[in-house]
Design a protein that fits this description.
single chain, 540 residues, 21 helices
């Protein structure tokens, strides 16, 4: 479908979502016990490629990508039982340090692995996965890491979880997250839990946004891949911080039915993976219409994402699948540390060397900072509205994140309307402005593409020193026009064919110390507990 048709479809869908926010936002307390009515109509078949398996993955199955593991399973060089058991072993040995999981399901995972060895049930058959703890999982505690839902056990799976299971994926546990998806992963009262898998002994190193646990589970080789949610950067940011490839699709490309909401017009579900191909495989399984999520209906068909994520080589040289103009904004080579800027320059040099790629400078409109900054606060009232009964019942239920919910409560109606106008103006500035001079836009953060519901992809570009840590991952973010996830994957696949950052894994952590010992030996600079003010300042 042409870019112009994609644009028209997206504008119509965005207007419909904004108009229907209150009608379709639902909390678990009001959820039906019926399972979602899934349909295969509009979903693309998943054609798993047969890939070359690296020696590291042959020697240790927890090193394998989804594509590598699936190849080994198809060839019967690896059993699902051995694959799942290897990941469960790492969870048992290292998750006391990583704290990536809110809950694990080893018995169910082992049973599913045995069944997968007897009969393959889909493209992900036998693949161990981590699910963020705001996705409904039938019969498994789903808390959104909050006091509000601490006893909630869903009667059915979220659509995304149901599709992964239908494809044969095996859930090994629920990923730890920020309370109600607002900050990095902490307990509901603000005590920091999940660490960056690359710096497990230093809690001060940012592990990313609220999908911290799903990211750490994959980076720490406790799951082959995971799914998270993004409202304010929580797929691409954890991916950037932990050397993963995270893909936030266009609004509506994947269903959020059965996900505890944060902001209906901004919530997205998507994969956190080890490379572009894994992200494409996961998104292909997840994407498509769902009758239980109106945002997913009537959209352009899902493109061939898996083919888009396979690098093109002609005469032994990597090139882009189609000519692509890559926009570089004014702040891309000015904001950040010297180490980060050096990696960004090297990234641009690599892109520019790929046949078919054209790197150009783009400019922002004069009101860019206002549109992407001040007016972004209108998201707070949207998250507060469905939670008003809980605020009235007991504000302490919101724990450390209370301030951001109160901020939404006190935004006036005229401020909300002005903010909506600003959002529409920002959308015009992006679609009719910066994206007219490029196909893909580089970004220094997830804004504005997550505000607007446009697709973006985070991928690793190297390592730099942070404090006493000599090698902390650095990533970058690419944004594209509506429903152009395939374009993002084409660029990422070409870059990853020329570099090996995405193949690197962190060293295993030192043996875990008891929690009391960790607290006693932690330095004063380590933020062991977020204050309410810090939580509000960093809230998605």
């Amino acid at each position: 479908m042409s870019r112009e048709m994609n644009r028209r479809a997206f504008l119509v869908r965005s207007a419909a979502v904004a108009a229907g926010t209150a009608a379709v936002t639902a909390l678990p307390a009001a959820a039906s016990s019926a399972a979602p009515a899934l349909t295969r109509s509009g979903q693309r078949p998943v054609d798993m490629p047969d890939v070359a398996v690296r020696p590291e993955a042959r020697n240790d199955p927890t090193e394998a990508t989804v594509a590598e593991a699936a190849t080994l399973l198809r060839r019967r060089s690896l059993s699902a039982v051995d694959l799942v058991e290897a990941h469960l072993d790492r969870i048992a040995r290292f998750d006391a340090t990583y704290q990536a999981f809110n809950a694990t399901t080893p018995d169910a995972a082992r049973a599913a692995a045995k069944a997968a060895d007897q009969r393959r049930t889909g493209p992900l058959s036998g693949i161990p996965l981590c699910i963020k703890d705001n996705y409904f999982t039938a019969g498994v505690l789903t808390t959104a890491n909050s006091f509000i839902f601490r006893d909630f056990i869903p009667p059915y799976d979220a659509t995304a979880v149901a599709r992964l299971k239908a494809a044969g994926g095996i859930v090994v546990g629920k990923g730890q997250m920020g309370p109600l998806a607002t900050t990095r992963a902490t307990t509901p009262n603000g005590t920091v839990t999940t660490v960056n898998a690359w710096t497990p002994q230093d809690q001060s190193v940012d592990p990313g946004g609220s999908s911290t646990g799903p990211a750490c589970a994959v980076a720490g080789r406790m799951a082959c891949s995971s799914i998270g949610t993004q409202t304010g950067g929580s797929i691409v940011n954890p991916s950037n911080q932990q050397n993963l490839t995270g893909l936030k699709p266009t609004m509506g490309r994947t269903s959020i039915h059965g996900v505890i909401p944060l902001s209906y017009t901004r919530d997205h579900s998507g994969p956190l993976a080890r490379d572009a191909l894994d992200a494409a495989i996961m998104l292909t399984v997840l994407a498509g219409p769902d009758p239980d999520d109106p945002r997913t209906l009537g959209l352009p068909s899902v493109p061939d994402l898996i083919t888009s994520a396979l690098p093109v080589r002609r005469k032994g040289r990597v090139e882009l699948r189609r000519p692509t103009t890559i926009g570089v904004p004014p702040d891309y080579l000015t904001g950040g540390s010297a180490g980060v800027l050096a990696l960004r320059r090297a990234f641009l040099d690599t892109l520019a060397s790929i046949p078919g790629a054209r790197v150009v400078d783009v400019t922002y409109p004069a009101d860019w900072g206002l549109l992407t900054g001040t007016f972004n606060n209108i998201r707070l009232s949207e998250r507060t509205e469905p939670f008003l009964p809980y605020l009235k019942q007991d504000p302490k239920l919101f724990g450390v994140s209370l301030l951001s919910w109160l901020q939404g409560l006190f935004l006036s109606g005229d401020e909300w309307i002005t903010g909506q106008r600003a959002k529409h103006h920002l959308l015009r500035e992006v679609l009719d402005g910066v994206l007219t001079s490029c196909d893909v836009l580089l970004q220094t953060g997830p804004v504005p593409f997550d505000i607007l519901g446009l697709p973006e992809l985070g991928l690793p570009i190297g390592f730099t020193a942070v404090g006493a840590n000599p090698a902390v991952p650095v990533g970058t973010i690419l944004g594209a026009g509506p429903y152009e996830e395939d374009r993002l994957l084409e660029v990422a696949a070409a870059y990853q064919a020329l570099t090996d950052w995405h193949t690197r894994r962190p060293a295993d952590p030192a043996p875990s110390a008891p929690a009391a010992t960790r607290a006693a030996t932690a330095t004063a600079a380590v933020p062991l507990r977020l204050t309410p003010e810090e939580a509000a300042a960093t809230s998605a």
